[in-house]
């Protein structure tokens, strides 16, 4: 197959992205941070509502998050507690952390526009908000990879989402993800992926 240079570069970054959980203390430049946030904001979103918010935590605020995650880890059964403590270590070691929340703007917009059964509308547009933000997060992760930055999508913090949102100052929002960003302390090991052919049905 003959691919253009830009296609090869894009596909390379998609494949090269790894979840990295431990970071060096090398800082991330403001320019690089703006680049990944701009890429996130370019994602497709239902009704083009861009119903996401990004909070960039550094310094004292980032440390507060790591302390909070550690403090609350003990309240959960072992498997969750282990993952929360791992997440706290990642947050601690990364120079910067991006927290992603959904704003609810799409839920309000869609519920008014469609005038369908309210619980159905809530379910529908909440799902659309999650899907839109997931696209934004993936853009952020791949853009970071293209700049030589390492990331990990931490979903486990959903377990303490109200505290996380409070720390971000997002009272209305819905938790989506916490993403430490930095330079990898050691290269990530590529986990084995099920071949895409196993996931595809060709229906003619
Ligand atoms: C929705 C979502 C939630 C995740 N939550 C966590 C998490 O809480 N902690 C963690 O270490 N990794 C988390 N990950 C990263 C996955 O473990 C990782 O993507 C997977 O093992 C495949 O590795 P790769 O990203 O290097 O391809 C999450 C990934 C996704 C998409």
UniProtKB/TrEMBL annotation:
Coiled coil region boundaries: none
Gene3D superfamilies for the chain: NADH Oxidase
InterPro entries (UniProt xref): Nitroreductase, Nitroreductase-like, Nitroreductase/BluB
Residue stretches making up the Nitroreductase domain: 14-183
Transmembrane segments: 140-160
Matches recorded under Pfam families: Nitroreductase
The species this protein was found in: Syntrophotalea acetylenica (Pelobacter acetylenicus)
MF annotations from Gene Ontology: oxidoreductase activity
UniProt name for this protein: Nitroreductase
This protein's UniProt keywords: Membrane, Transmembrane, Transmembrane helix
């Amino acid at each position: 197959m003959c691919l253009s240079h830009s296609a090869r570069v894009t596909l390379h970054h998609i494949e090269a992205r790894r979840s990295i959980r431990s970071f060096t203390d090398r800082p991330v430049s403001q320019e690089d941070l703006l680049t990944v946030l701009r890429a996130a904001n370019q994602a497709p979103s239902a009704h083009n509502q861009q119903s996401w918010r990004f909070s960039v935590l550094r310094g004292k605020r980032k440390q507060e998050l790591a302390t909070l995650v550690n403090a609350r880890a003990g309240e959960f059964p072992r498997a969750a507690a282990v993952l929360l403590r791992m997440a706290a270590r990642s947050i601690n070691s990364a120079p910067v952390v991006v927290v992603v929340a959904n704003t609810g703007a799409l839920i309000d917009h869609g519920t008014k526009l469609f005038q369908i059964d309210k619980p159905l509308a809530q379910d529908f547009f909440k799902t659309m908000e999650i899907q839109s933000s997931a696209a934004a997060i993936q853009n952020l992760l791949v853009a970071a990879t293209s700049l030589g930055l390492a990331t990990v999508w931490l979903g486990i913090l959903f377990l303490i989402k109200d505290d996380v949102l409070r720390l971000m100052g997002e009272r209305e929002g819905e938790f989506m993800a916490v993403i430490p960003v930095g330079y990898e302390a050691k290269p990530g090991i590529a986990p084995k992926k099920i071949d895409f052919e196993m996931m595809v049905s060709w229906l003619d």
